[in-house]
Amino acid sequence: DKGGFPHYMLKEIFDQPNCLRDCMRGRLFAEDDMGGNDAYDPSTGYADPNVHNDVVLSAVRNNRDRLLSASRFIIVACGTSWHAGLIGKQLIEHYCKIPVEVDYASEFRYRDPVIYPTDVVIAISQSGETADTLAAIKLAKEKGACIFGIVNAVGSSIARETDTGIYIHVGPEIGVASTKAFTGQLTCLILLALALGHTKGTIDEKEYVDMIHELNAIPAKIEEVLKHNEDIRLLARTYTYATNFLYLGRGWNYPVALEGALKLKEISYIHAEGYPAAEMKHGPIALVDNMMPCLFVATHHKGYEKIISNMQEVKARGGRIIAVVSANDDEVSKIADAVIEVPDTLAPLAPLLSVIPLQMLAYHIAVEKGLNVDMPRNLAKSVTVE
Ligand code: F6R
Fold this sequence. Notes:
This protein is of the alpha/beta class. It has helices at 8-14, 16-24, 58-62, 64-68, 79-96, 105-110, 131-142, 157-161, 180-200, 205-226, 229-238, 254-268, 304-316, 350-368; strands at 28-29, 54-55, 72-77, 100-104, 119-125, 146-151, 164-167, 244-249, 271-276, 294-298, 321-326, 338-342. The chain is built from 14 helices and 12 strands. Fructose -6-phosphate binds next to α5 and α12.
């Protein structure tokens, strides 16, 4: 049931606020200004009066020692899930001070990787059936690593192969292009990093509580971003001519740039490259001309000033610029041809907001081109071939 939307993809984009509420329910306990809990325990239907401003994950509680004694985390995934993994690395390193590697499952499994029994391998998968991810965790398990799953499909092959983990709980994703699973994966990774960092004592108490409050506010902020749908539809019309697109971001938003480019490629068949913005001058800038639009993810966080200079470099070469910016930004609009505003939030949560306009842009460009967005050519929802 498309719930009145023309495509599953658009429905799933719009479902994200409620999907993330489902994902956080019973895990995130944020005390509101009135002193009550916004999140509640689904087993009782009531807010748990004993839990205040906390993240509770049974997977962390029950495997505390194993997770905290890990010398290293290795994240394995494919496609969009791998992009979530890149943000997961930043989160776990920042909040837990544990080194994290991120690998394509297909590269990891065929490379003869070094795996220690003290490693924790995190598999991220929407379908839970991706053959390469499944093979990667089987290999890691044989070598004695602990396997932690972040999986959407309950009871799937990957979920069954893991030692512990957290379900994404965003409901079945039908559109081939992943949208709500990505923001759900990010939410799980944020919850994991917060719970683990708090247990370990590597996260400052104020930062912990601030993150809990901000995360709790994210679904409503996504609702704000979704209000730009019509503007983005109109913007999309301007770009159906493009045959190439560059997506650029830094820091927390660098993986968002990769994800935006992947969305555009897979459903609109426009070649798009995602790059960390600073890498542009090491090659891709040679491609920039007035036929290649550049999308900058330029929210008001660390690296903002630098990304403005990157934007100026593109502008000087005649490139067309679309930018995703934080609310009340008045710098970027002087340079960019079009800006899309997202509400302000804490830097580690920025991807949850900045990816939404990119999903909508890819969707509308594909629809304008008359393409089948729910079933793009050559792609399958579960990649069970190797
Ligand atoms: C992109 C997309 C794919 C999947 C990838 C992994 O929109 O859907 O790149 O992310 O095939 O799939 P899962 O997460 O099911 O393992």
